[in-house]
Amino acid sequence: MLDVSLHFLGTGTSAGVPMIGCDCVTCTSDDPRDKRMRCSVVISYGNTSVLVDTTPELRLQAIDNGVKRIDAVVYTHAHADHIMGLDELRRFNSIKGGPLDVHVDREHFEVINSCFAYAFREPDPNAGVYRPYLIPNFIDGDFDIDGVTWRPIPLLHGSMPILGFRVGNLAYCTDVSEIPPHSWAKLRGLDVLVLDALQWRKHPTHFNIEEALEVVQRLQPRRTLFTHLAHGVLYERDQPKLPPGVEFAVDGQRVVSRS
Fold it and tell me: Which of 32, 110, 182, 257 is buried most, with the most CB atoms less than 10 Å from its CB?
């Protein structure tokens, strides 16, 4: 039996919640469930912890959530809200005492490398420079991290191909507006599904809540948590509108899937 734990470091949209300069009911809410950093999670099993995406708040997310060690990093795609905390990985290099493996598809690696090329070069041990040291591993199918299979799930984020991931019977699918026909079978039989559900209104590059609920109805996972939430979602008002087994994820929340 494989127990897979997912720890939400951030559940918010690219602008975060509260948004800069916004006085809406969610952005001014005192409810901690309405405070949302940019989307990232740690997926853990056994003694292994894998970070999915490096948000601009990565340092704060790690401190707030007690993340003291990372064994590898996986990227869904190369938008700014998912990569711009990459330099913070240098601290995890220091803790590990060596390089970190980074799993990413080739197209999105080109974008990441254009911003952070220095992080993928072997450091000069005599230079005394404190920077990340990352080893790229290109995703072209299922891959293993410490003996556990990660299955990439091709998704569409508007017109951009991106990846979700399945580990055991847990799937993480953020920033998605369409599930291609060949990907549905990879999402069958889930214990836990984490799925993009930006807001109530329709959006060109994300599922809205109604569309996400249609996915849930089709896949029938045991439990679903919606993420990448914008300020149009007010937790106390909107959570009761969701059906049993479906909830809005909250920063700091943990969920465990058993295979």
Answer: 257
In whole angstroms, what is the distance from residue 57 CA to residue 85 CA? 6
Residue count (the chain): 259
Q: Phi and psi dihedrals of 254, rounded to 5?
A: -120, 145
111 three-state secondary structure: helix
Q: What is the C-alpha separation between 57 and 258, in angstroms, rounded? A: 30
- Cα separation, 151 vs 61, in Å, equals 26
Average pLDDT, 10 consecutive residues per value, the chain (259 residues) = 94 98 98 98 97 98 98 98 98 94 98 97 77 96 97 98 98 98 98 98 98 98 98 98 98 93
3-state secondary structure of 103: strand
Of the candidates 43, 45, 114, which has an alpha carbon nearest to the alpha carbon of residue 83?
114
Residues ≥6 apart with Cβ < 8 Å to 207: 176, 177, 195, 196, 197, 198, 215
Burial 158-191 (b: 16+ CB within 10 A, else e): eeeebbbbbbbbbbbbbbbbebeeebeebbeebb
Q: What pTM does this model have?
A: 0.96
